[in-house]
Amino acid sequence: MTQPAPAHPPHNDPSAAPRPIVTLDHVTKRFPGVVANDRVAFDLFPGEVHVLLGENGAGKSTLVGMLSGLQTPDEGGILIDHREVRIASPARALELGIGTVFQHSMLVPSLSVADNMALGGPWWSRPDRAGVARRMAQVCADIGVTIDPAAKVGTLSLGEQQQVEIVRALMRGSRVLILDEATAMLTPKGAEDLGALMGRLTRLGIAVVFITHKLNEALSFGNRITVLRLGRKVGEIAPERLAALGPAAATAEIIRLMFGTDAGAPADAAPRRARPGAAPLLVIEGLAVDDPAVPVERVDLAVAPGEILGLAGIDGNGQKQFAEALAGQRPLRAGRITLAGTSLERLDVGARRAHGLRYVTDDRLGEGTIGGFAISLNLLLKQVGESPFWRAGFDQPEAIAAHARRLVGEFDVRTPSIETPIGKLSGGNIQKALLARELSGAAKAVIFAKPTYGLDVNNIRATRQRIREAADRGLAVILISTDLEEVLELSDRIAVMSRGAVVGVVENDAAARGRVGELMSGVTA
Amino acid sequence: MTDTQISTPDLTEADRRDQTARAEARAELWRGRARVALLGIGPVIGALLLSALVLLALGVDPIAYYGFVIERGLINPYGLQATLTRMGPLLLLAAGLIVAFRAGIWNLGGDGQFLLSAVVVAALCPLLAPHLPVWLVLLVGLVVGALVGAVWSVLPALLKAYQGVNEIITTLMMTFLGVSFANVLVKLAFRDPATTVPQTRTLAVADRLPRLFDTTVSSGLLIGLVAVIAVHLVMTRTAFGLKLRIVGANPRAAIHAGLPVPALTVAVFALSAALAGLAGAVEILGVQGNVRADWNPHYAMTVIPLVFLARFNGFGSIAFVFLFSVLSIGGESAARRTGVPNFFTLVVVAILLVMLGVAEYLDQRRRAAGK
Questions:
Q1: What 8-state DSSP symbol labels residue A374?
Q2: Where are the transmembrane segments (chain B) (predicted)?
């Protein structure tokens, strides 16, 4: 999973006229168990749209958080106009001229546009609505947008609300504007308008940081592109190079950067071999799930015993909805699920589990466990009332404790005691406990949702080993992951999910990386 | 620990680590218990001291007041028997609250459930008494009381289970409706034609719940004790109780684990409200015998802080209900003797609540500092 990061050429053009407004000087930010940013260097020039690309968990949000004052770097420094500064709070970031427009609106919907602009003023004075409107009109004229200051924010479209936030940031004197996944909620037309607006902003000499998942937007709106992967900066395409490459070559270059190039991959990641000729154990036909955000449509998958089917895709493309519907937590709209010849689609969670279907959730603390309950109970969370742990409805402390001790030993859960509340354990040990719960007993098929998300290197290795062992035992495995390296390392075949549908299934061979990357980015249909 | 190691020198390193870990876990457990006990008793002492200051400000000798309270509520045999009788319905209400609170459902509608059940039982049982044996009348009364309580929680239960409507609001509203409705019933439908003041017919003393041994203590106390202990065991030891606790602790985990969350929610409401209704029946069948118009002892609201003080623990609840009963029975006669208003007991409970909040806050700060 470790790709040799291409040595990033520093801004090696001394004749380049503008000096960077903001420089991140090899910043590192660690969270418990994760290095979110690893010595990332990043320059921001006036009059440029600098696109930040990367998968979920690549470290984009952390980088933005450090620029906007939500987080401070553990190592490295931030320079503004070549002077080192400490951005300890969002207010300080604004003072320094860095304005951020977050993905979700930070406006008060029940107030008018002008009142939203006046928020943050001193509490004892009346908002100067006329003055605000006047200054607003000027900024709007500068950047070529029209906003009615008296309109209630709640009545504006999402695109208009973003314009309001941009205007607000400019009125506060921002020279740097960060747009965090600004197009994620917009219609294609709205995204285009925003792109045009970014162009006008840069002509005023403002530096824009534009964060997106979408390659086409990065290419059409961006002047400079930086790609992050797993917390490291893996490449930067300077404006002149971007212009020279042209869209097709640039796309290829970005895919190479985002998903890595080495077709050979690490030695131990040689594609596994499914048992030949085995009939599918888990068959999913025409699965459809209703969801306000990402409805899932016509998913057809078949997994043989001993096979690992990777489900790749950018996060939020229906993987969670699919997994929950498969496990029985969420109603199906249509479709059939067959496990070893038994139809599961009408059964509830408990019955599906009893038939051997297991689901290792990625939301370990939110739904997988109850933080305040003892490990021993969390290990039995899906078997409450079953013998021999409960007899005639009463708990059997001996049986419960023996079961917990056995699993804690087998799965190497490091804990002071089986009575310890599970919430006190580290993320890796909580994941081990979850694996113990789902992989023990008569499992036939397992769905792993982002099984290594947020774990450290050792626990990632241990978890991947468990997944391989599960398949070697003859289980049908579906591995949902947004980490392409992981999917490539473990899977026999790889399905790609995009906007709620499986857009393709490929064999995990030498060409898989490129094909999957293309399917994921929506470059080819 | 040291002794163990010396006496068994061939203990492997792993065993020793294991033992140390277990000893630590045990010590942790005891520290936790001591902390809980302190958090329960500390506020009580604080509240009594602060109440004493209020009494001083009123010009009343607090020692004399507390002396009367203890004498009349605890030492005097009649007082003690009244105290124990008062505990019956309070314990049933506490049991109902423990079920709900442990399942994360804030049933604050106990007073409405209690009062409606009391009125229906008070109207029904005197009518049945001439025709049925006493034990059957009492049994019917208890069952009907529990059913009436449960029925009055159906609307909040369904709204919570299937629409996610906040049950704090709905149960409180149902209490307003229930209390008013109970009054309407007493004044119009169930009014005893033989009396001038509006009240229901009266159940003859001979037909009420039997007294315990040779005392005046109503057997409602036994029903209450059995209910609290049973609820405590169900919630801590059974699969059903664990399911309710899972729903209460993390509803999303409950869905993930495949528990029928809406059905369990309705079951919690039914149980909790049935116990509140049972409390109403016990109060009528054991103590009051009838319901006068505008009678509302607000027992359920009074029990809520006690259950919180006990951390939803059944045995702790018994202790706090006992303490409150002493305060309230003793407070009634102390009020007469010292000229302090009768409801001073409520002042003590209110201060107790504030002290509970303070203790909770201090404990959290201490724990936050410890980490």
A1: B
A2: 36-58, 78-101, 135-159, 171-190, 217-236, 257-279, 299-327, 339-359
